[in-house]
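lol forgot to send this yesterday, sorry. C-alpha cells for the thing we talked abt
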C-alpha cells in the first residue's frame, strides 16, 4: 500500500531527527540571508514610519488651514504662511493646562482631538508661527510684533 504523502510528512515531522535537521536548515538560511532579512525588515519599518509621518502632516494641515482660514495656513500675527512654520495657539494662554485636562500628550493627539470634535473654539484658538507663539509665551502673553504694530500706528 502506498503511503499518503500527508501521512508520511506527519510521520517525518514528528521525528526528532528530522525536526532537528529542519531547525538547522532554517538557522543556516537566516545566517546566509541575514543582510536581506534585515533590509526587508527595515524597508517595512521605514514605510510604516513614512505613512505615519504623512498622515500626521495631513492631519496638522487640515487643522491649521481650518483655524487660520487660509489654504496654506497663516500666522495671525506676522502673516507668514506654510504649515511647517505654524502651530495652534491658545489665544488666552494656558494651552498646556487645556491639553492636560483633555488628557492629551503631544501636538498630534491635540490635532486629532480638534479634528474629530469638529474644530471646537472654546477656549478660543488661533494659528501662530512657532516664532510668534514662543515670543508670546515668554513676553507676558503677547508677541512683541504687536508693539511694532502699535509703533507703526503712531507714525502713520
Ligand atoms: Zn508669526
Ligand atoms: Zn508675532
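and heres what i got for the seq, position by position
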Amino acid at each position: 500500500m502506498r503511503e499518503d504523502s500527508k501521512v508520511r510528512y506527519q510521520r517525518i515531522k514528528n521525528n526528532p531527527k528530522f525536526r532537528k535537521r529542519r531547525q538547522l536548515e532554517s538557522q543556516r538560511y537566516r545566517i546566509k540571508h541575514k543582510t536581506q532579512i534585515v533590509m526587508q525588515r527595515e524597508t517595512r519599518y521605514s514605510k510604516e514610519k513614512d505613512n505615519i509621518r504623512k498622515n500626521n502632516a495631513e492631519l496638522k494641515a487640515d487643522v491649521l488651514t481650518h483655524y487660520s482660514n487660509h489654504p496654506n495656513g497663516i500666522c495671525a500675527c506676522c502673516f507668514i504662511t506654510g504649515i511647517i512654520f505654524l502651530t495652534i495657539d491658545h489665544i488666552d494662554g494656558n494651552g498646556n493646562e487645556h491639553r492636560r485636562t483633555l488628557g492629551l500628550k503631544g501636538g498630534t493627539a491635540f490635532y486629532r482631538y480638534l479634528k474629530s470634535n469638529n474644530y471646537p473654539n472654546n477656549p478660543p484658538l488661533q494659528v501662530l508661527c512657532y516664532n510668534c507663539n514662543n515670543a508670546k509665551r515668554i513676553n507676558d502673553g503677547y508677541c512683541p510684533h504687536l508693539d511694532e504694530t502699535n509703533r507703526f500706528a503712531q507714525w502713520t
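Residues 14 and 61 are 58 Å apart (CA to CA). anyway ping me if u want another try
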